[in-house]
Amino acid sequence: MSNSSAGPILVLGGARSGKSSFAEKLVEASGLPMHYVATGRAWDDEMRDRIRHHQDTRRGKGWITHEEPLDLVALLRRIDDPARAILVDCLTLWVTNLMMEERDMAAEFAALAAFLPEARARLIFVSNEVGLGIVPENRMARDFRDHAGRLHQMVAEKSAEVYFVAAGLPLKMKG
């Protein structure tokens, strides 16, 4: 897993499925310097507590953290290096941020998809699979589900490996 030429890895799963822990283990197993790209925003006290807990208990020494809620591709281009492993957690929070800022989703997704084949770092993406439940009752939630589904398909297509994690158990879907 230490070679970055294999291509990106996508790790999907539901809330509290163990997907982030699994992705972190993949990064650690690479033996490369570990970079964590956090896309989440602290919109309220509960989210601030979650972020703090994650930083304190999950990412100890050895991780370099980058916080980027919107300009993900620009950040990835800046830190891209074949001697690095980069974990992006998570794509669905990025989708939320883009929607809240009324960004051009198609353009943002296309920029990420175009970058992936060029990436030299060991890239691992985490994202919430949101398409397994019932159809959401409101327009914004349906748009979010649709955007996330399209993004997952684009990233999965460009990824060397894709995993689905449920109950802490990873199922390899591609690669």
Automatic annotation (TrEMBL):
Q: Which reaction does it catalyse?
A: adenosylcob(III)inamide + ATP = adenosylcob(III)inamide phosphate + ADP + H(+); adenosylcob(III)inamide phosphate + GTP + H(+) = adenosylcob(III)inamide-GDP + diphosphate; adenosylcob(III)inamide + GTP = adenosylcob(III)inamide phosphate + GDP + H(+)
Extract one GO molecular function annotation from the record: adenosylcobinamide kinase activity
Q: What EC number is given for this enzyme?
A: 2.7.1.156, 2.7.7.62
InterPro entries xref list: CobU/CobP, P-loop_NTPase
Please give the family membership noted in the entry: Belongs to the CobU/CobP family.
Known role: Catalyzes ATP-dependent phosphorylation of adenosylcobinamide and addition of GMP to adenosylcobinamide phosphate.
The protein's name in its UniProt record: Bifunctional adenosylcobalamin biosynthesis protein
Task: Give the species.
Answer: Sinorhizobium terangae
Give the gene symbol.
cobU
